[in-house]
Amino acid sequence: MRLVIKSGYVIDPSQSLDGIFDVLVEDGIIKAIDTNIDTQGAEVIHAQGKIVTPGLIDVHVHLREPGFEYKETIHTGVKAAVAGGFTAVCCMANTNPVNDNQEVTRYILKRATECGLARVYPIGAVSKQLKGEELACIGELKEAGVVALSDDGNPIVNSGFLRRALEYAKYFNLPIISHAEDRSLAPAGVMNEGKISTLLGLPGIPAISEEIMVFRDIKLAELTNWHIHIAHVSTAGSIELIRRAKEKKIKVTAETCPHYFTLTEEAAKEFNPNTKVSPPLRTATDVEAIKRALKEGIIDIIATDHAPHQFLEKEVPFEQAPSGIIGLESALPISLKLVEEGVLTWPQLITKMSYAPAKVFNLPGGSLKPGNLADITIIDPNFSYKIDVNQFYSKGRNCPFHGWEVKGKAIMTIIGGNIVYRISEKQQK
After folding, report:
1. 99 and 17 in one domain?
2. How far apart are CA 221 and CA 224, in angstroms?
3. Chain-wide mean pLDDT for the chain?
4. Pick from 386, 329, 305: nearest CA to 80
5. Could you tell me if 239 and 290 are in contact, meaning their C-beta atoms sit under 8 angstroms apart?
6. End-to-end CA distance of the chain
């Protein structure tokens, strides 16, 4: 099969490409990027006025299957992914049963293959049953196909245990993703600790509950000389710790999520459970610090932490609602606000959402270099619309951006040279 994407504005940070080119795909592989590529015998995609990028990669999603299919399935999750422009996702281990063994890993990969949409890379548990007491069989998980390890959702409290985990993970060349939270500082907390939590009468979660664990995790990464990745960074203090660690060349990387550079604790004033996340939404000062950290490269990756919940689970008082929001179908337009505001350039944004995720987690993709798999996202930067959760492919509806007017949308997602999602020309008008 021969495919030519014609006259699109190609942005590929891996090659410092930033201009109008044609992209030639043959048999699922990128063959050439040039001007005036011959289209004879090829399917032609006219991409004038559109942005052509390496496929977006989300390294932090909860697909819920197996065990919580009423919240999300692998099928609905990957449909949401490709609709959001993501060609690959990494799914967390907090399923039921937990992904702490080869059988669950292989089940996830089998189901993803059957769906034939976004590539799915499982993340294995660090500890059996996510209890932080006994190491999972890391070698077996690696053999089955996991790309990283995490007890995400459950912080690893025991420092000695995490040290051993890092040492084992190093042997198998698997990064550990840290959910940095000291729950002893806020055992009943439901939002950021501060004036607004006091005003609302809600128990708060102080910034230090994240920062103290980020510090601990960085020191253990330094001790073991191994890679720890800090998930969903939300505070200015955490950013400063990560900055210093990077200056010392410690093996640490970090991600944040669109809600942490877009929303503040003010969003919780209406007691909307769809603004309840873990870690919580922080202050305007934290939001500005996150934006600076993205611009300066202190935060490597934008991930969604896509965490769907069944509708009725969120239709309860704020304190009782589970934490988490969905993000696969809203991340791109929300993140494009960073470009609109001048925080990031287009190449910097694509680095955070494609090239860096692939590089940090040793994944295929993130580049349009000839010879690579043809995983491509085509974006219409002028596509204006209103976010409507009722139009989402995800089973989840817990999105705080419902009703927002946004600009910029993935209009075509190509995986292995196959068009798996597209918006018709009529829809684009």
Report:
1. no
2. 5
3. 97
4. 329
5. yes
6. 29
User: Which structure tokens are listed for 347?
Assistant: 């190449």
Q: State the average pLDDT over residues 130-142.
A: 98
Point out the residues that are catalytic. Answer: 305
Hey, which bits of 147-302 come out as E strands?
Answer: 148-150, 176-178, 191-192, 204-205, 228-230, 252-256, 301-302
Within 8 A by CB and 6+ apart from 219, the residues are none
Which residue type is seen at 279?
A: P
74 & 193 share domain: yes
Q: In the chain, how many domains are there? A: 2
Cα separation, 322 vs 276, in Å, equals 8
Contact (CB, 8 A) for 286 and 220: no
Q: 38: domain CATH number? A: 2.30.40.10
DSSP-derived secondary structure for 17-79: EEEEEEEEEETTEEEEEESS---TTSEEEE-TT-EEEEPEEEEEE---TTT-TTT--HHHHHH
* Coil/strand/helix, residue 412: strand
State whether residue 214 is helix, strand or coil: helix
The amino acid present at 151, given as its one-letter code, is D
Query: Which pTM was predicted?
Result: 0.97
Contact 223/247 with Cβ under 8 angstroms?
A: no
Residue that finishes a domain, picked among 360, 385, 404: 360
Q: Encode pLDDT of 19-36 as tens digits.
A: 999 999 999 999 999 999
pLDDT digits (tens, 9 = 90+) for 184-213: 999 999 999 999 999 999 999 999 999 999
Contacts of 110 (CB under 8 A, 6+ apart): none
